[in-house]
Design brief:
The chain is α+β, with helices and mostly antiparallel strands and about 190 residues long. It has one domain: archaeoglobus fulgidus dsm 4304 superfamily (archaeoglobus fulgidus dsm 4304 fold). The protein contains 7 helices and 9 strands; from the N terminus they run βαββαβββαβααββαα. The strands form 2 sheets. A 7-stranded mixed β-sheet has the order 3-2-1-4-7-9-8. A hairpin with a 2-residue loop joins β2 and β3. It is globular and about 40 Å long.
């Protein structure tokens, strides 16, 4: 199993089209077995490409967890594309998305809003509520339809409702991003 998630970035990164970290964590059972790090453009179009690079570096995975299909703002990861290196992609929604609000924001800020929205809407339309050991969660599955997604998510919920490979990827990406931001700020202050 693997989880892929992005790191923190300040709001001005959107305007400046800067990068943040995208981290993939591979788990064998409930134990971490590998980590790959890439950078991804905030509001860019390289999300799927960077996620594939991570999965290649990890040697693929049976299941890949994503926190929604957007990273680094509105940079999207297309779950179907990840199936070349994974048997299934499980999109977990930590919070209920407001697809109408998302559509309005995309229309306002992106000339390619339709392509981005199509990826977001496809995942949301495929999602459903699943009982897990922590709580009922919205989840979409791409690929192996035979998996018991409730059982899989529950198995990976070690310390929170978020599947552990995804939680750890988020924590690492956020720590790296905040460290890089602090280094940049300190570097500018010294100059």
């Amino acid at each position: 199993m693997a989880g892929i998630d992005d790191g923190f970035f300040p709001p001005d990164y959107k305007r400046l089209k800067l990068k943040t970290f995208l981290v993939g964590t591979l788990y064998l059972g409930r134990r971490p077995a590998g980590i790959k790090v890439r950078t991804v453009t905030v509001d860019g179009t390289d999300g799927t490409e960077k996620a594939l690079e991570i999965l290649r570096g990890l040697g693929g995975a049976d299941a890949v967890f994503l926190d929604g299909v957007t990273v680094a703002g509105f940079n999207v990861i297309e779950p179907d594309s990840l199936l070349e290196l994974a048997r299934s992609v499980v999109v977990v929604y930590k919070f209920e998305p407001d697809v109408r609000k998302i559509e309005r924001a995309l229309r306002l800020h992106f000339p390619d809003w339709e392509r981005r929205y199509e990826v977001i809407l496809k995942a949301y339309a495929r999602s459903g509520l699943v009982e897990t050991r922590w709580k009922t969660m919205r989840v979409a599955v791409f690929g192996d339809a035979g998996i018991d997604v409730g059982e899989l998510v529950s198995y990976t919920q070690l310390v929170s409702p978020t599947p552990e490979p995804l939680r750890v990827s988020d924590a690492i990406a956020s720590a790296l991003s905040r460290s890089a931001l602090l280094s940049n700020l300190l570097g500018r202050a010294v100059e």
